[in-house]
Amino acid sequence: MGSEQAEPPPFAISADRIFDGYRWHNHALILIAGGIVQSITSRDESASRWSTEVMPPGTILAPGFIDLQVNGGGGILLNDQPTPDAMRAIAQAHRRYGTTSCLPTLISDTRAKAIVAIAAAKSVAGGDGILGLHLEGPFISPRRPGIHPGDYIATATMEDLDWLGELSAVGSSMVTLAPECVPARFVKTLATSGIRCSVGHSEATADTLTAAVDEGLSGVTHLFNAMPAMSAREPGIVGVALTDDRLTAGIIVDGIHVDPVVVRAAFSAKNPNNIALVSDAMPTVGTEQDHFELMGRQIQLRDGRLVCENGTLAGAHLNLASAVKNAATFGGMFLDEALRAASLVPARFLGIERHRGTLVAGAQGDIVALTPNLEVLTTWVAGNRPQSVPNPERG
């Protein structure tokens, strides 16, 4: 397991506004003991035994953000270093932006690399802000590769369940796949074992996707991107995603991957309790660097866009604090919906909402403090302000 800090003594945090994942509390205190939320109470009812930290006027406290799709950060790409130290460093790079837990994400690569990543995630899942692992590929459509290297995209066989099934022992993990590229019962086998399955980089028809949902597929990876557009007679992935409440749709709200008008349309069409903000972040997040190499391809940061030589988007230069702010401004979401989309919704998708994604009694004390302008002031993880972890050497 990952390294843990000593348990802090009981304490309270006072703020003008506290959002617990479900409702607002004004001029309140959140009480934490043993790293666990005990209650949220009014300032007038605070007991003298609670050492209280008073946040600046206007501060908002909310559940720490949970990012389901983090390819990299802090100058590190998981595909380059699928190790425990790299996963810790990526999570640490995103913590300053309010993300208290995440799924490090490996895009399509060799089977050997995926197996190494699974083993690494197994050793750290549950600590250091790492919930599990997200394998985005390799069982995706060669017609919708995005930035995924075509040489590593594969059609699944039932034998692949032998190694892929190891994810069931890795905390809360997920697989992005194209339902049309896997055999019958493939999704059902994964979902039954506790692995979340999500459609992405796919050209599945509405019927094919609905059949996969019936088998247990429950997510949509970066809605609108790397999938066909919805049309009058071909609803496709987008149509099913917007109308089937069994699906939690991740969406990249950076103003680049999805036009703001389309973002607002999605938020209007789909139950906001089934929309999760994701970063799809790359190594540039948390650094000053404007380029990196992705499996032999040069990626440049230009006007906020990460693109390869031919202009294909290569992940995002985005963090969840910015995604929340964007969702609440040009996305047209209410603030509570935007905060929930970055916390409770992804927690519920992973089945961990009793302990993460909320600030109700019994939940882990993962908290983000925001200014009225939604800038991150600080975070707590299990009641601790996390200490930095060293970056592994970059090759």
Automatic annotation (TrEMBL):
Protein name per UniProt: N-acetylglucosamine-6-phosphate deacetylase
Domain of life: Bacteria
Residues reported to bind substrate: I147, N225, A226, R233, H257, L313, A314, G315
Necessary cofactors: a divalent metal cation
Cofactor binding: number and manner: Binds 1 divalent metal cation per subunit.
Example of a GO MF term: metal ion binding
InterPro entries the UniProt entry points to: Amidohydro-rel (IPR006680), GlcNAc_6-P_deAcase (IPR003764), Metal-dep_hydrolase_composite (IPR011059), Metal_Hydrolase (IPR032466)
Pfam families: Amidohydro_1
Occurrences of domain Amidohydrolase-related (ranges): 60-384
GO terms of biological process kind: N-acetylglucosamine catabolic process
Keyword Cell cycle on entry: no
Residues at the catalytic site: D280 (proton donor/acceptor)
List of residues binding Zn(2+): E136, H201, H222
Keywords: Carbohydrate metabolism, Hydrolase, Metal-binding
Similarity comment text for this entry: Belongs to the metallo-dependent hydrolases superfamily. NagA family.
